[in-house]
Amino acid sequence: MNNMNSVSRREFLKIAGMGSAASLIAPSCSFAFAGASKRHDIGATFILWGYGADNLEPSLKDMSRLGYHSFETFGQVIEEWEKNRGGFTKVVEKYGVPIVSAFCMTDVLDPTKRKDEVAKLVRWCKLLKQNGGKVIEYCPSGIKREGYDYKQHKKNLVESMNEYAKAVTDQGLVCALHPHTGTPIETQEEVYFIMENLDTKYMKFGPDVGQLEKGGADTVKIVKDFMELIEHVHLKDYSGGDNGYLGYAPLGEGKVKIKKILQMLEKRRASMAGMIMFELDSDRKIKPALSDFEAAKLSRDYLVKLGYDFKASQA
Predict the structure, then answer these.
(1) Rounded distance, CA 17 to CA 30, Å?
(2) Which residue, of 142, 219, 220, 284, is most buried by count of CB atoms within 10 Å of its CB?
(3) Residue ranges in the chain modelled with pLDDT below 70
(4) Torsions phi, psi of 5, nearest 5?
């Protein structure tokens, strides 16, 4: 396997599609610095509050109170609200936190499912786009990891993800790969392998730094090596153990080098199509010590200490 450190910046920029995917879309809001000392806005994903349509409104209520600038939810949650709950736009406008991205999963190992998976993904893309979103945070569907060898699945992995990423791009959105534990792309070796083989004209990178840490990766190295492809980020800490967050932790409470990663990302941030998103997984089998609001506030307060600004309505 090639080592990304051996690739020159010029060569890597060529691999990355000659620059940012942000140029592919016309942003509806400005992510530029308001001043030399101001850091970029931070959003939040909704999974701290849960994983279903019922969890959307409670998450938006807390995000609005805490001043998070945007949010992310699942493609199927948007679809559920559009079809059965009176419209997605209505609930988003109620709390004033705009959507930037949708987390979408599809199968990558079974070619017989690909046609239907593309159709599902395109459907979610259209819903996200009509609600002002910019990025599909793309993740392969979960698998049984025992006995899994990514090299045996190279053809389907590469072909399917290239097709999915192109379908997203054709809809005017940016597709960013999200490596995730319990999926075909979990370990550091798998991340490098797949990113070196995908067509990065279409598939960009959307790392979850907590997931990478949990998967045993050198998270700082991966962020550094793939910086030119990063279009969206899940900012998550990891401490391990059964803590009600699947081993993850509020920002600053774990072992992910959050400060270092944010310093690196600030140089890239203005070119990203998406945003940096605070995230903390929920584990409904174990009750955490903090409420959802308290965990989100603790993470927000940590970011405030690092110089990040939140809306005036913050609690």
Answers:
(1) 23
(2) 219
(3) 1-39, 312-315
(4) -65, -20
